[in-house]
Design goal:
mainly beta, 5-stranded mixed sheet, single chain, about 5% helix, 4-stranded antiparallel sheet
Length: about 130
């Protein structure tokens, strides 16, 4: 249950059966940021569903960019939709990659809009992932 997207648009994810450990990777050009807008969310946070955005990528336990190469501490790179007081409708990455982790019950899901925005102030210390 892994998706990789390099296009802008509106995307709907709905579980036909319980889904565990799903992720979607969003990729832009090196000079772009990724913005994720939550349009509609139908998840049960109290029932164990979750929806988290990570500023960067996680793959096989490794973070990209690494903690040494990213200006934010790892704890601030996760945005958890279900955490009380932390509901954000729009999230922007610090570089050209972002990912969403999701676990949800059958019938639950969400709709997001993904946009790419120009990074006019790209700094050389950011790790850039090329598609």
């Amino acid at each position: 249950c892994i998706d990789m997207l390099s296009i802008e648009g509106q995307f709907t994810f709905t579980a036909e059966q319980p889904q565990l450990h799903c992720a979607t990777f969003f990729i832009g050009e090196p000079e772009e940021f990724i913005t994720i807008d939550y349009d509609f969310i139908n998840i049960n946070c109290q029932g164990g569903d979750f929806l988290k955005v990570f500023d960067g990528w996680m793959l096989k336990g490794e973070k990209f960019p690494s903690s040494l190469d990213h200006p934010l501490p790892t704890s601030r790179r996760y945005i958890d939709f279900c955490e009380s007081g932390n509901i954000q409708r729009s999230i922007r990455s610090s570089q050209n990659v972002a990912m969403i982790f999701r676990i949800h019950q059958s019938g639950n899901g969400f709709t997001i809009t993904v946009k790419k925005n120009a990074n006019l102030f790209r700094k050389s210390e950011f790790y850039i992932v090329r598609w």
